[in-house]
Amino acid sequence: MSTSRPPGGRRFPAPLPAVDLRLLRPQRMVQAAVADARRQRPPAGLGLDSAVVRGRMVERLRAGGIGDERVLAAFAAVERHRFVDPALVTQAYEDTSLPIGLGQTISKPSVVAQMLQVLLHELDTRRLASAGGTSGSRGVFGRVLEIGTGCGYQAALLARLAERVVSVERLGALAEKARANLAAAGVHNVQVLHGDGLLGAPAMAPFDAIVSAAGGSEPPSAWLDQLAPGGRLVAPGAPARPGAQPLIVVERTSSGWTRRVAAEVWFVPLKSGTE
Ligand code: SAH
Known about the structure:
Strand content: 15-25%
Structural class: alpha/beta
Number of domains: 1
Distance between the termini: 61 Å
Number of helices: 8
CATH topology: Rossmann fold
CATH class: Alpha Beta
Bound molecules: S-adenosyl-L-homocysteine
């Protein structure tokens, strides 16, 4: 009996035409990146060069007005490509927000840098310590609260500026993803909580700094209450017009709070409740 004929006499389908594998080359980077992500190694093609690519991003941030060396050093150190989808690694060091699933995005480096710079601007660690803040010997800040962990990138940057970062994310799946990303990146001083960030993290308060990666209204009173004396809060506020939100800075003084607008930004909305 012929092996090319199945029982019943039907012919096997004709073999697929030979494909010139060289034509598939443009896909190689992505396939390699996916394989590297599974092995938790820096993607091929970014690998050894990734510090160089990151260095270019840092220079662009500097040219765009980010002058705080502590912020720039954090951007030089944190491997952003570990926090984006394997298929998007080639865009990881562009100044763009990228999808991270569940309709959310990783924030644009220039916006994150601006927020961190505002957070650090003229901040005197000794002033914090003497005012009763949580700052210690390591890092500029003691405890920092981040609202909206997303994929964990900004948390990893904050982790280089603080002794301890508490980050709250309302989407359980993203909180999980962020924990995995941070562990893979070797970041161990960030605690990711699945919860409603509008409530802050009262059990861990007070915080030297509070930074929100989502916004749309005035900072809730829970955040103001959880700010240490001398501490500072940075959050996007209610849009002044479509596409423009004020970046609100609140400082806690010995007698109360001061509020000012530092810049205009655009963030995803802050939603209440968890999913
Ligand atoms: N910090 C991220 C940005 C994430 S985008 C980065 O490094 O790129 C903003 C995130 O805020 C989203 O993941 C969204 O789910 C989350 N978010 C929105 N409202 C929230 C709330 N009330 N509490 C906690 N997280 C919230």
